[in-house]
Specification:
With 556 residues, this protein is mostly beta strands. It has 3 domains: 119 residues, Cupredoxins -  blue copper proteins (Immunoglobulin-like, Sandwich), CATH 2.60.40; 177 residues, Immunoglobulin-like, CATH 2.60.40.420; 193 residues, Sandwich (Immunoglobulin-like). It contains 5 helices and 33 strands. The strands form 7 sheets. A 6-stranded mixed beta sheet has the order 10-9-12-17-14-15, with no helix packed on it. Strands 11, 13, 16, 18, 19 and 20 form a 6-stranded mixed beta sheet that branches. Strands 22-21-26-31-28-29 form a 6-stranded mixed beta sheet. The longest helix has 15 residues. The radius of gyration is 24 Å and the shape is globular. The termini are far apart.
């Protein structure tokens, strides 16, 4: 009788605390090594993780802890950023060089340790120092907690598709050469799909093949890991149902063309409902500004099981390079799921209302060949990173002289941002941050300008997701435009494309203490200084405070 009672007690406890709620600690080892690689009939050594490009995929579930031990075996300094992971109180593991850590020097290592809180979907990781993310990048797959279903039909299988850029030359050498002239580095030589550039004229190149079975539905986890190009993704003869953006569920909608800025991710359902055969997958660039860019299309193949060996590939039309209506239609279709399980918690009252004007300028440069260099700025501040410590260490230890917290909330000079530009296009250098109280609410209007070269700017915020409450063309009107803001179900993202000649308004709650980077995710503009950071003060008690740094935090 006593044995039965004990068994019954254990059974009842098991029902009360089911095993499906348990979280795991997942361990990964990243070795930063060189790998000799041939693409486009050209061979070079590239920096990789574990000799792979793209690198290994991180798999986890919501609520898990991820520990990644990174060991640097190359001559370059390195850091890794877990793009889109909120890093609640764990800013030491965020990764941007000189922002939250000093770089991992050659022969040294660092352990990134973070938990995945309130997130599920597809994100990416990449190097976050110089231009090393050209070859150091990979996907992050976050499954729902055990026992929790997707809010859409369960797919037969899941496929990861990572889009990148490829240069034949040594990328770091190219960037250093461009810096000497004060100009932009060369554009890439090709786009890649899971590391494959696909067929290129005059060079035999194996492309990526996506294998499917008739009648089955697949979840495509699509990542734009390109450095400087916004891209379209399209499959001949097939529709795609978008269900997630930047690891946040959206109201499903059907499209034949997906649009992604660098750093953005999209999950979409693909149903193999066409005739057995081979279908062209195309990745093409979007550019609606008169500047140089890689205009080559990358190709892959959707291959149905049972297709004859020499079956002709069915082709697809590709969007025009300047297909702004297609990008607008896609962006406007994105809406948060805003369900009971996944509510949209949009801040309705605002403590900090900021207007950030995005400009490109020309500054004197004594070491440059032509005496000047191209720069970029927010509110006329070209951001300069420290070199002897990180911003987060300076904040945590209260080190004076590293940064100031007087970043301007509005442009110092008001002008017709998308019209006639000022004659003076010189900017001011500075390491200025914007300070926020814990749990304060923030609205940022990112305002594009026509200075030198107007174009789209994909902005990424570390440490938070935000809601895109509005977008428009021309100059933001603080009286009229907020009347049309979507405060009910705006899309929740970590990276937003500011339209060419327009603006985007985002809102978030500063409930994560630390120092958090905000920057353009076009690598050329980040290099030029199109970046800043927020310093979020601690709240009340340990659960609202930055944790101490780990013992192995790299030194500068």
């Amino acid at each position: 009788m006593e044995t039965r009672l004990v068994a019954l007690t254990i059974f009842l406890v098991a029902l009360t605390f089911p095993p499906c709620v348990l979280s795991l600690v997942r361990h990964y080892k990243f070795g930063v090594v060189l790998k000799k690689t041939t693409k486009l009939c050209s061979t070079k050594s590239i920096v990789t993780i574990n000799e792979k490009c793209p690198g290994p995929t991180l798999h986890a579930r919501e609520g898990d802890t991820v520990i990644v031990r990174v060991t640097n075996h190359v001559k370059h300094n390195i850091t890794i950023h877990w793009h889109g992971i909120k890093q609640i109180r764990t800013g030491w593991s965020d990764g941007p060089a000189y922002v939250t850590q000093c770089p991992i020097q050659p022969g040294h290592g660092y352990v990134y340790n973070f938990s995945i809180t309130g997130q599920r979907g597809t994100l990416l990781w990449h190097a976050h120092i110089t231009w090393l993310r050209a070859t150091v990048y990979g996907a992050i797959v976050i499954l729902p907690k055990k026992g929790v279903s997707y809010p859409f039909p369960k797919p037969h299988k899941e496929k990861i598709i990572i889009i990148g850029e490829w240069w034949k030359t040594d990328v770091e050498a190219m960037v250093n050469q461009a810096a000497k002239f004060g100009l932009a580095p060369n554009i890439s030589d090709a786009h890649t799909i899971n590391g494959h550039p696909g067929p290129v004229s005059g060079c035999i190149s194996k492309g990526y093949t996506l294998h499917v079975k008739s009648g089955k539905t697949y979840l495509l986890r699509i990542v734009n890991a390109a450095l400087n190009d916004e891209l379209f993704f399209k499959i001949a003869g097939h529709k795609l149902t978008v269900v997630e953006a930047d690891a946040s569920y959206v109201k499903p909608f059907e499209t034949d063309t997906i649009f992604l800025s660098p750093g953005q991710t999209t999950n979409a359902l693909l149903t193999a409902n066409q005739g057995v055969g081979k279908y062209r997958i195309a990745v093409t660039p979007f550019m609606d500004a008169p500047i140089g860019f890689d205009n080559l299309t990358a190709f892959a193949t959707l291959h149905y099981k049972g297709t004859p060996q020499y079956h002709k590939t069915i082709l697809t039309s590709i969007p025009p390079l300047n297909a702004t209506p297609i990008t607008r239609a896609f962006i406007d279709s994105l809406r948060s799921l805003n369900s009971n399980d996944y509510p949209a918690r949009v801040p309705l009252t605002i403590d900090h209302s900021l207007l950030f004007a995005i400009t490109v300028g020309l500054n004197p440069c004594d070491t440059c060949v032509f005496g000047n260099k191209l720069v970029s700025a927010i509110n006329n501040i070209t951001f300069v990173l420290p070199t002897k410590t990180s911003l987060l260490e300076a904040h945590y230890y209260n080190i004076k002289g590293v940064f100031t917290d007087d970043f301007p909330a509005t442009p110092p000079i008001v002008f017709n941002y998308t019209g006639t530009q000022p004659a003076n296009i010189q900017t001011n250098n500075g390491t200025k941050l914007y300070r926020l109280n814990f749990n304060s609410t923030v609205q940022i209007v990112l305002q594009g300008t026509a200075m030198i070269a107007p174009e789209n700017h994909p902005f990424h915020l570390h440490g938070f997701n935000f809601y895109v409450v509005g977008q428009g063309l021309g100059n933001f009107d603080p009286k009229k435009d907020p009347l049309s803001f979507n405060l009910v179900d705006p899309v929740e993202r970590n990276t937003i494309g500011v339209p060419n000649g327009g603006w985007a308004a985002i809102r978030f709650r500063a409930d994560n203490p630390g120092v958090w980077f905000l920057h353009c995710h076009l690598e050329v503009h980040t290099t030029w200084g199109l970046k800043t950071a927020f310093v979020v003060d601690n709240g009340i008690g340990p659960n609202e405070s930055q944790i101490p740094p780990p013992n192995d935090l790299p030194k500068c």
